[in-house]
Amino acid sequence: TTGGTGGYAELAVARVEDAVPVPAGVEPRDAVALLADGRTAVLLHRRAEVKAGEWVLVEAAGGGVGSLLVQLAAASDARVIGAARGAGKGGLVLSLGAVAYVDYSRPGWEREVAELSGGVDLVFDGVGGAVGAQGLLAVRPGGRASVYGMASGSWTEPAGHVRAVPDGGVPSAAEIRAFTEEALALAAAGRLRPTIGQTYPLHEAAEAHRAIEARATTGKTLLIP
């Protein structure tokens, strides 16, 4: 890693101690796609303590972190419902291990989730706003919510019938490295794969940002030097 800078350059300088070896069998593009999203998904999955047989709702299931959370929860033998915007992402989400897909651009999608599951045990909310609030309505009383993002522009407001997954504080540098290495090891073992929906040449970085802001992307977007 480069300490948070240098991602828009063809060459960048990183400290030796920040370098993370890429395991054999993992393509460089996959490693880049897993660098931040992979460690985030591993951390969220661990803190949520996903259990076998639980119903888990993953919002933005076709996105970078969401698509990884679907895989991790399914690997824990949870029953995963993936939610995203548009019918076109359903095939992808189901291929990652979800048992069902719902389109949260459709009115009443949260009722569909509740009917499928009888009320989910856990929701991973990286969207916030109206989607996050609707997702909480699909959680059974006493269920859990892992609120980790606000892609909509605002955080999800707490709900009285749902327990928040403790955030555990900011992970240490050692923990971040360990989570990164774990994500890469899972990829090397064929148990975790990033979804790279689109790539752009480096000189089209502005166009890549416009596509992301317009929610016209799937999975991870990479800039290629």
Describe the structure.
This protein has a single domain, classed as NAD(P)-binding Rossmann-like Domain (Rossmann fold, 3-Layer(aba) Sandwich). The chain is of the alpha/beta class. The chain starts with 27 loop residues before the first helix and ends with a strand. The chain is globular and about 50 Å long. The longest helix has 21 residues. It has seven helices and eight strands; from the N terminus they run αβαβαβαβαββαβαβ. The protein is 36% helix and 19% strand.
Characteristic terms for this protein:
6-stranded parallel sheet, alpha/beta, about 35% helix
Q: How many distinct helices? A: 7
Question: What share of the residues does DSSP label as strand, in percent?
Answer: 15-25%
Number of domains: 1
CATH architecture: 3-Layer(aba) Sandwich
Question: What is the assigned CATH homologous superfamily?
Answer: NAD(P)-binding Rossmann-like Domain
CATH topology: Rossmann fold
Q: Helix/strand/pairing class, anyone? A: alpha/beta
- The portion of residues assigned to helices is 25-40%
The rounded distance between the terminal residues' Cα atoms is 16 Å
Order of strands across the biggest sheet? 3-2-1-4-5-6
